[in-house]
Automatic annotation (TrEMBL):
The chain crosses the membrane at residues 32-52, 64-85, 97-118, 201-222. CDD domains: TM_PBP2 (cd06261). It is found in: Cell membrane. This is Tungstate transport system permease protein. GO terms for cellular component: plasma membrane. Keywords: Membrane, Transmembrane, Transmembrane helix, Transport. GO terms for biological process: transmembrane transport. It comes from the Bacteria. It comes from Vannielia litorea. It is a multi-pass membrane protein. The keyword Transferase does not apply. Residues 26-222 form the ABC transmembrane type-1 domain.
Length: 235
């Protein structure tokens, strides 16, 4: 028990004195995850709206693909990107493997289907409500998508927060393509896995506390938004 008490005490010390290595890992995690979620939203919002109101060949198949991609195993995504970015792979010349850029791409692949699927459902519901009005105004398909996305703003924030929660918890894919290199590609989840395996619990506990706090904040924000837009406030 004394060893655990010491680890907890050391973890608190890392946070209180703003340890440089600790802050570096947290900062890189925030940069990678924030950029990945931003890109995922820029892709997922219009893609979801297109799937909701668009009429084109292959729409059903694309919807199925997006829904299926929500359950992609992270390690499989990491393996596929590793093969793509390795020196022998088709994009090996770009030198992206074991860089933060590769980690961002891995998270974008995992988060975009979540954002797109949630957006599609929200926009489809709004389209059913406002379709007659939009037709009366002779709105084009692009105008309808833009209008419905604007009306769906609170729900889109919910989708973005859901994607953020997914990205923050990711470890498998980013470890494979990032390599968990100290001072270069080490983020909170991969650092926790490494430090725990080494028996160095203080840093792992400090980072775990940050992740737990962030998770609570995200879930609290999700519940608040769901209550605001009239959805069930659970989960």
């Amino acid at each position: 028990m004394s060893a655990f008490r010491d680890a907890i005490s050391e973890a608190a010390g890392l946070i209180v004195r703003a340890d440089a290595d600790f802050l570096e890992i947290v900062a890189l995690s925030a940069q990678v995850t924030g950029l990945a979620v931003l890109i995922a939203c820029l892709i997922g919002f219009p893609l979801g709206a297109l799937l909701a109101v668009g009429r084109f060949r292959g729409r059903g198949a694309l919807s199925v693909l997006v829904n299926a991609a929500m359950g992609l195993p992270p390690v499989v995504v990491g393996l596929a990107l590793y093969m793509l970015f390795s020196r022998a792979g088709p994009l090996g010349v770009l030198g992206l493997l074991y860089t933060p850029t590769a980690m961002v791409i891995a998270q974008v692949v995992l988060v975009t289907p979540i954002v797109a699927a949630l957006t599609r459902q929200v926009v489809a519901d709004l389209d059913a409500e406002f379709s007659e009005t939009l037709r009366a105004l002779r709105a084009t398909r692009a105008q309808a998508m833009t209008t419905l996305l604007w009306e769906a703003r609170p729900a889109l924030v919910t989708a973005a927060l859901a994607g953020l929660g997914r990205a923050m918890a990711e470890v498998g894919a980013v470890m494979i393509v990032g390599g968990n290199i100290d001072h270069l590609t080490r983020v909170m989840t991969t650092a926790i896995a490494l430090e725990t395996s080494r028996g160095e619990l203080s840093l792992a506990l400090a980072l775990g506390l940050v992740l737990l706090t962030a998770s609570l904040v995200i879930n609290g924000a999700l519940m608040g938004l769901r209550q605001r837009i009239g959805e069930p406030a659970h989960g």
